[in-house]
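It would be a great kindness if you could assist me with a short task in structural biology. The matter concerns a single protein, recorded as an amino acid sequence and a row of C-alpha cells. The record follows directly beneath this note:
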Amino acid sequence: MKLALISSAAVCVALAAASAAFAQTGAYHAPRTAYGQPDLQGNWTNATITPFERDVKFGDRLALTDKEVKELEGANAQLVADGNKPTDPNAKVTDLPQNCGRGFVGVDCGYNSAWVDPGTTIIDMGGVKRDSIIVSPANGRLPPMTKDAAASMQARFAGARRASFDNPENRSLGERCIMSFGSSAGPPMLPLLYNNNYQIVQTKDEVAIEVEMVHDLRHIRLAGSHPPADVKLWMGDSIGHWDGDTLVVETTNMRPEQNFRGASVGSKIVERFTRVGPNQIKYSFTVDDPKIYTAPYTGEVALNTTKGPIYEYACHEGNYALPGILAGARTQEKEAEAGKAAGTSGTD
C-alpha cells in the first residue's frame, strides 16, 4: 500500500511539473486555417512502443522514470538489431527462433525488422513518458467485460480457428485488403506494426484523415446528424464540432466486422484532437460500449509531425495468400477423410 501511494504521488508530481512548465511558457494556440479553425493539417505519425494496456507491475502509475524509458527503448533497439541479422540460408524451419519478438513466432520470424516500423520511443506528452495508451481506468487496462459478452467471446473463440479457414469472408479485413489491420483507421486510431502515418486535410465543413494503412480515408462532417442505426459504415459515421481549440468527434454506426476488442455495433467513440504544440497533436478517445464492457475506457496517443508525402499502400498479399490458405485447409480435410477411410477398412 505504501509503495502504491508513493507511485501515485510520483505521478502527481510529474504531471504538476509538466503543467507548471506549460503555464510558464503560456498556453499554445494552434495556427488558424482560412476558415478560422485550429489548423490540424499536415502529416502525422502515432508510432510508439508504448503498449495499449499497461503492464500490471506498474499498477496505477502512468509515468515512467528516465531509467525505465532508457531500458524499454534500449530493449526495443536491440530487438530491431536482432531482427535485422541475416538468416542462415541453410537453416531449416525447425532451426528458426521460436520467439523473435513483435508477436512473431517460428517461421514468422522471416518478417524481420526491415519490413516493420512500429516506432522506437515511448509516448511523451507534456514531459510525461507514458507506460500505456489507456489512461482510464486508472490501472491502464480494459475494464471487465459484461458477463454475457465474456461468455459470447469464449464461445466465439472456441470455433474461430476452424471457421477462419472455411471461406474468404472469415479471414481478417486487413488480410483481404478491405480495411487496415488492427485499429489503424479506427476509430480509435491506434499504432500497430507499420504504416502508422496520417494526413489531415481541412475544409470549412469537413476534416478528412487519410490513413496510410490500406489507404483508408475518414470523413468527419462538421454538421448534420447520424443516419439510422441500421446504416452501418466502414469506420462508422463521424460528426465533429469545435470546442475551443479541440476537435471533438463522435462516431457511431460501426460495421460489425470492425469489432475492435470485441466491440459491439452499438458502441460510441468520442475522439478529441488538440494541437498542443507545433509538432504534436494530443489525440484522446473514449469508448462507451455498455453491451461489452462494464465501464467506458479512455486512451491518449501523441500524433507527432512526420515528413511526407505519404506513399500509396499497395495491398496485394490477398492475391496469393487467401487461395493458398483455403486450398491448404481443403487438402488437410481430404487427407483426414482419407485417413479415416483407411482406418475403417483396416478394421473390417
About this structure: The first strand starts at residue 42 and ends at 45. The two ends are 70 Å apart (CA to CA). Residues 318-346 form the longest helix (29 residues).
